[in-house]
# Entry
Amino acid sequence: MSGALVRLLAVALGAGLLAGCATRAARPDASDRPAPGSAGKTRPGAPEETPDKGSRTYLGEGLASYYGPGLHGRKTASGERFDQNGLTAAHRTLRFGSCVRVVNMENGKSVEVRVNDRGPFKDERIIDVSLGAAKKLEMVQKGLARVRVYRCKDEGPVSAFSIPLQAQPG
# Structure
């Protein structure tokens, strides 16, 4: 090997080692976030809901719809019977039994629901909630609402090694 090639390999190896030892950027702490009441209000008087999109609990934002009257009593994708008055939801990818908090961005109302079905089947929507949850979100008259979806506070991230939650008989 020529001397130039050896020097080039040595420099490349040294740069790779230095890059591997570099520190990561620090995660912002609570003091870096805006003060309560300073941002994120959807309308005057609405409770504050600012998404922490880097948070492990934030799942997304988009349109929610509700379903219920024609499907009450039928089996859901998880195998349990659908109760339109229950606090449940349909999501495309979340595990059955997952708890999510849905926040109506138009009025600040929120509800915790359990995923027990698959859907929604319209691309622009991110979650379908039961009629009972839609009532709590005050979205029944409009049929759709702009929402933010969060993982429930007491629920950790789900991995391939998590124990699957069983569907409740219904």
Summary: Helices lie at 3-21, 131-137. The two ends are 74 Å apart (CA to CA).
